[in-house]
Design brief:
- This is PaaI family thioesterase.
- Residues 49-123 form the Thioesterase domain.
- Pfam families: 4HBT.
- InterPro entries: ACOT13, HotDog_dom_sf, Thioestr_dom.
- This protein is of the alpha+beta class.
- The protein has one domain: Hotdog Thioesterase (Thiol Ester Dehydrase, Chain A).
- The protein has 3 helices and 6 strands, in the order ααββαββββ.
- The protein has helices spanning 4-14, 17-20, 53-72; strands spanning 25-26, 34-38, 78-87, 96-105, 109-118, 124-134.
- Strands 1-2-4-5-6-3 form a 6-stranded antiparallel sheet.
- Strand 5 (109-118) and strand 6 (124-134) form a beta hairpin.
- The radius of gyration is 14 Å and the shape is globular.
Length: 135
């Protein structure tokens, strides 16, 4: 069974260095799926200190892979084949929490959803749905 520590180790083992540079941290596991903390960073911010959409999508995609690791109990090679994201409002001045959960996982495809909220105010800033091919 995947623990927060094994999921954190998976970040270093399976993801590109630029993804690791996001500074994602696995939050304590509760319920289903996973929650990652994306620390506030000037490097990931746009004008006015707003978290960039590119950083949110990268964090969402990464969280989905870790949700699949938790779902299957081990890493399975996969690739994102479709991701649809809606940005609801800007996020600035706080960390982001990236919550991903698997909706359904079959033999060749998995479907999930990701909600990104402000860590301080809990307000939703982005919602994504994703389809992954399991290789």
């Amino acid at each position: 069974m995947a623990t927060a520590d094994t999921l954190q180790a998976a970040l270093a083992a399976y993801f590109a260095p630029w993804v690791q540079d996001l500074g994602l941290r696995v939050e304590p596991l509760a319920g289903e799926g996973v929650v990652l903390r994306l620390p506030r960073s000037d490097r990931l911010s746009r004008v006015g200190g707003m978290l960039s959409g590119q950083a949110m999508m990268a964090a969402a995609d990464t969280a989905m892979v870790l949700a699949l690791v938790r779902h299957f109990g081990e890493f399975r090679p996969c690739t994102t084949v479709q991701m649809n994201s809606s940005f609801l409002k800007p996020l600035s001045g706080q960390d982001a929490l990236v919550q991903a959960r698997v909706l359904r996982a079959g033999r060749s495809l998995a479907f999930g959803e990701i909600d990104i909220t402000g860590a301080d105010d809990g307000q939703s800033v982005s919602r994504s749905s994703v389809t992954c091919a399991l290789l």
